[in-house]
Each structure stands twice: as C-alpha cells, then as structure tokens.
Write a structure and sequence with these properties.
160 residues; two-stranded antiparallel ribbon
Length: 160
C-alpha cells in the first residue's frame, strides 16, 4: 500500500479495514477487530473515507452500502464491542439500545445498582405504607424525593 494514507484509494482503505478483522469460520461467530480499540473495547479505524472511527459502524456501512442516519446507533446483538460481523449488527436509537440492554440484564437496576440505598424489600414496604414521606425518608435514610419517586413509580418499578 502507498503512504501517506491520504493517497490511498477507497478500495485500498476497505481492504486495509477488513485485514484488521479476524473473520470467523462461520457467519454466526463474532468477527473481532484485531487492531486499536478505545477504552470501551470498540475498534478504531481512521480513514478519510469513513465518517465514524468505530470499526463496527464502518463494517455496518460497508455491508449495507449506505450511511448511518443521524441519531442512529449501530448496536450489537452479540454484546461484544470489538465484533464487526454485519450479521450481529443492527440500527437502532439510544432507546432501542437501552431496551436491548435491559432485556438482556446488562443494566443494573433496583438494589443491584451501585448508587442504590434502598432494597427491593424496602421499596415494597414504602409502597405499602401509609406513613408520611418525611417519616419514611428518615426510616430508610434517604431523601423525601427518593420516597416520592418510589411512590409515584419513577423508580423501583420492579420490586421483586
């Protein structure tokens, strides 16, 4: 390949891109990005031909033949950030991505969330109580706002 990179053709950039992907033996396995990755494990690829520097987004564009629309994410069905297998990628919104993560139990919620001060049992007790929000807040060591959120379904919707 010629240097510097700016003198490459798009075909050469695409060839270089795919040379950095370990393509598995079958379409079902993850195709891992083997070059540079960011702190979250997503592959990085710099080229004047691709707007995004994330390898999975470039893989999606190359496979689909079209640009990724604004405010759309390229999500992984396999939940594997370095994966570039187009069969594992799908377009979605931030809400779609969050829903997917919740459905797969990848997002901590309830008493398992690192910031949680209440347990599932405490939330059920708060919902069943007829005491004042101030009294409940003092009992459980949280703010009255936290009690209000439990009582109004803004937090602790799942208390099982």
């Amino acid at each position: 390949m010629r240097y510097p990179r700016e003198s490459w053709t798009k075909a050469e950039a695409i060839k270089l891109f795919w040379s950095k992907v370990n393509i598995g033996n079958d379409r079902a396995s993850c195709w891992l990005w083997m070059a540079s990755r960011n702190s979250k494990g997503y592959g990085k690829f710099v080229s004047i031909f691709f707007k995004s520097g994330r390898a999975h987004r470039i893989a999606y564009e190359l496979h689909s033949g079209r640009k990724i629309p604004k405010r759309k994410l390229v999500c992984h069905r396999c939940d594997n950030p370095p994966c570039c297998n187009p069969e594992h990628l799908f377009l979605g919104t931030a809400a779609d991505n969050t829903s997917d993560a919740v459905a797969k139990n990848r997002i901590a919620h309830g008493e398992h969330h690192t910031c949680s001060k209440l347990t599932n049992l405490a939330a059920r007790e708060i919902l069943a109580s007829r005491k004042s929000q101030r009294w409940l807040a003092k009992k459980y060591g949280v703010s009255t706002g936290a009690i209000w959120q439990v009582l109004h379904g803004k937090s602790w919707r799942r208390t099982s």
